Amino acid sequence: MKILIESLAVNVGSNKWHWKYDVNGNFTVAGIKKILSSVNHDSPVRAFEWNNWVPKKVAIVAWRAEMEQLPTKSAFMARNVPVQGQDCVFCGEYAETSEHIFVGCQFAQSVWLNITVWCNIQPIIASGINDIFSLHEVSSGSSKKRKAIHAAVLVAV
Questions:
Q1: Quick check: helix, strand or coil at residue 70?
Q2: Other C-beta atoms within 10 Å of 78: how many?
């Protein structure tokens, strides 16, 4: 053991970190962002727009609904969780998915009709949940009115 320790050569000087992904060896946030963006080529079609007028826990439900990540009957069945039937609890006609619960279901459509009356906007014609979340973008009026419509939509979901 003593022979191993005596054979060690120790260099005197300062230690320095070297980032191998930069020519100069310097780490930067911009550099890591560039590396990560070159690896991930999948960008979302539409980024979820957060609204500070809505409580975070409410917005998270809407965000998860947009990604089809709510605990619906269809989601449970896809994960092999036993459920009694896959039909919507409101209409009983179609599979219970986030898309159906918030857009396709007759019950949901009556809720959206009441929201349009309350917000004094044109009736909503939506083919998907993204149409609901982008409703404020096509609405006329002031930015406050558009933000209020967006908040109302997020809360309704």
A1: coil
A2: 11
Sequence letter at residue 111: V
pLDDT at residue 42, as a whole number: 63
DSSP state of 103: I
Closest Cα to residue 98, out of 57, 157, 40?
Answer: 157
Q: Whole-prediction pTM value?
A: 0.62
Say which residue the tokens 């439900």 belong to: 61
CB distance 16 to 116 below 8 Å:
no
CA distances from 157 to 15, 16, 61, 115, 128 (A): 55, 53, 7, 11, 13
CB of 145 closer than 8 Å to CB of 139: yes
Dig out the tokens for 131 from the structure.
């149409």
- Give burial (CB, 10 Å; 0-12/13-18/19+) of 150: buried
Q: Could you tell me if 86 and 77 are in contact, meaning their C-beta atoms sit under 8 angstroms apart?
A: yes
Which one, of 89, 73, 70, lies nearest residue 81 by Cα?
A: 73
Average pLDDT per block of 10 residues along the chain, 157 residues long:
68 76 88 79 71 91 91 92 91 93 91 85 83 80 83 81
